[in-house]
Amino acid sequence: MEKRKRSWAEPYKMKMVELLKMTTLAQRKKALQEAGYNTFLIHSDDVYIDLLTDSGTSAMSDRQWAGMMLGDEAYAGSRNFFHLEKVVQEVYGYSYLVPTHQGRGAENILSRILIRKGDIIPGNMYFTTTRLHQELAGGKFEDIIIDEAHDPENEFPFKGNVDLSKLEKLINKYGAARIPYVSIATSVNMAGGQPISMANLKELRAFTKKHKIRIIHDMTRVAENAFFIQQKEKGYDKKSIREIVREINSYTDGATMSAKKDALVNIGGFLAVNDWDIFEEARNMVVVYEGLHTYGGLAGRDMEAMAIGIEESVSKDHIKARVGQVLYLGNKMLNYGIPIVKPIGGHGVFVNAKKFLPHIPQENFPAQALAAELYLDAGVRTMERGIVSAGRKPNGENYFPKLELVRFTIPRRVYTQAHMDVIAESAAIVYDRRKKIKGLKMVYEPKYLRFFQAKFEKLQ
Fold it and tell me: How far apart are CA 123 and CA 214, in angstroms?
């Protein structure tokens, strides 16, 4: 007898709900125009399903909310800091902790400590805030991700891998002394949430040790990366997510963390390192830029919720459901014929705007135009990850990334499978009328990180 396939369900039940607002097409048109066709500038009250980001938008557990009531708001030496420090050491394996208000606070401090003018920082694809902090400190980012990562159709399972030959060329060109560290992200965001393999990390660690170069880890979505290693990499199917996370971190020298993602909190982050001298300098600098070294811009209750969230993030049931929901949405889109980045990533589905809207040239912002149209159809808010996010080079010219994507980012423990159905159906409706969609022109551009605040007008 053939084995019956079982349905999957979320490993939690609702204890409280937040009512969603349904809007009319006329209301969405007005909101979109007032926002200058930038989904970041739409008021959340005008959004039905919000997939702008998974950063700080997750639902906390009852245990986390209970922990919030145990906040020790002492200015110095909060017991919640020491709880968080213990959890970071036990779960992630790093020796020293410096809390920050969120991940970019850690990026700022780290960049100021390690980067000198003229330094080169290789990494497995840029991330917006990370690269900006590196540039403001006088460094230059160099992409050393494998070529497959720039091809949305390529189905290689570990598109976050580093190309060691690219790194070797940089060392030969600039010298190891000008490379303060290699910047490694797990579940590479700008590539579509693509993981790095453990085998590649081991090779990278051996290579950097030979050249005495540090590895600094952007561990924002490390648990999601661990899930893909467990599912796809030989020898890891019997290991727990917690064990895999700890092994990933063991091949790095330190990490920046936006706890607003994997750690399931609405605010918070940290810098974690193994080097006492870096820790000592960071501990001094956090007092200048964030807050005392035992709170780093956070309330005690925030640190307690983070400590509990880290433990929950490496739970088998949680991570299977979290990534499973993303896979569910991605497969529904594929069934509708919508071009997305393959394989489906860990934190969102990334639609290939170049293929979705081939009639719109990249200089007319196809991904930005598509995000606007998706909002217009059903009030689903997504975000652009293409030429707008890439920004400008130090000489003022636009970066033209090979990937021009719209990110459908799924908050953790927030939406149901029914919401995923609505999202996929809306994307399919927009896909059916794709030939009528027009490009945009930028009419306002801020100095830094323009994708947050830029404004556009529709081309006629």
Answer: 12
* Strands 214-218, 254-258: pairing kind: parallel
- pLDDT over 90, % of the chain: 95
pLDDT tens readout for residues 83-98: 999 999 999 999 999 9
- Enter the tokens of residue 221: 């979505």
| Token pair in block for residue 109 | 């401090």
Cα 183 from Cα 162, distance rounded (Å): 10
How far apart are the C-alpha atoms of 133 and 106, rounded to whole Å? 10
Q: Give me the domains of the chain, ranges plus CATH numbers.
A: 25-54+316-458 (3.90.1150.10), 62-313 (3.40.640.10)
Least Cα distance to 127 among 148, 103, 151 occurs for 103
Up-side HSE of residue 89: CA atoms within 13 Å toward CB?
Answer: 11
Which residue in 401, 414, 407 sits closest to 382, CA to CA? 407
118 vs 129: CA distance, rounded Å: 19
409: region left, alpha or beta (phi > 0 left; psi from -120 to 50 alpha): beta
Q: Which two three-digit tokens encode residue 331? A: 């497969």
| Residue 43, burial from CB neighbour count under 10 angstroms (0-12, 13-18, 19+) | exposed
| b/e per residue 55-79 (b: at least 16 CB within 10 A) | bbbbbbbeebeebbeebbeeeeebe
Place of tokens 């949305």: 152
CB 98 within 8 A of CB 76: no
Cis bond before residue 366 (omega within 30° of 0): no
Q: What is the pLDDT of residues 351-393, one digit of tens each?
A: 999 999 999 999 999 999 999 999 999 999 999 999 999 999 9
Of 159, 165, 155, the C-alpha closest to 188 is: 159
By annotation, the residues acting in catalysis are 75, 127-128, 218, 261, 385, 451
pLDDT in tens, 143-183: 999 999 999 999 999 999 999 999 999 999 999 999 999 99
Whether the Cβ atoms of residue 201 and residue 251 lie closer than 8 Å to each other: yes
Is the full-model pTM beyond 0.85? yes
CA gap 372, 363 in Å, rounded: 16
Cis upstream peptide for 99 (omega within 30°): no
